[in-house]
Amino acid sequence: MENINLKSAIEYLAEKYQLAKIESITTSESTITVECDKGVFNFCSDFSQERCEGGDVPLFPWRSQRRYFEMRKNLLDKIVQDPVGMRIKHIAPKGTNLANILVQEVDIAQWILGDRVEKVFASTQDDYCNAIFSTEQGIKISAEIGTAQTKTPILLHEIIAKTGVITDTAVDTQVEHYPIYLYNSKGTTIYNDVDFELYGLSYDEIAKVRFIASVLAEPKLIGELQKTYQQAKKVYRAAVLAAEKLENTAVLRGA
Description:
Blueprint: H1 6-16, E1 22-27, E2 31-36, E3 39-44, E4 57-58, H2 66-76, E5 83-93, H3 98-113, E6 117-125, E7 128-135, E8 140-148, E9 154-161, E10 164-167, E11 180-184, E12 187-191, H4 203-217, H5 221-245, E13 249-250
Parallel strand pairs: 3-4, 5-8
Antiparallel strand pairs: 1-2, 2-3, 5-9, 6-7, 6-13, 7-8, 9-10, 11-12
Helix pairs in contact: 1-4, 2-3, 3-5
């Protein structure tokens, strides 16, 4: 398939799998709005302000990334059982809003573990945060998030369970690897393409398209996504309060 952009990729998957009849797609820095025969879907990716309210759909592309999907499946299939702890490290490029990172990591943790955070202890300094989350089932999650002078995010997710450990990072990886290398007299060319349907898009763009396609296929997911987002925002607010007081802070319940 020829190289495509994000808009044409959404249209392509929607038509190929008969997910919806697309009428228009508009994009901005923090939103992707899809108008189709099933309605108007405003996917929002900026969680640093009071966005994603009402009828907006929180854009959680990480749920379409293989690394997190397989970690979740290992627990669902009971390949590893009884998680007791989780380690998270997410250092993003400078300029990334800390609230966006925290909402992302809280959703990843809750989605993979199938458990909700109920208490938070956190300390913050500038664009850096150390936090310990306690879930309803007693799982402890240690998180190191922040920003630095890096071109790509530094990521680590590891689950410690009674019967084993799940990690999304190969233990012997020293440098980043790519699917295809082309060596010739002009030097080395690197190709990142791993998705035969969405050739030419970046990993992040592919995840966004796949996530949007999943919502178009099953719009009833929107209600659960909105509730999950509201929960993650409550965890963020509790983390801010915990950092101010330097004490454990409960996550508010209810609407």
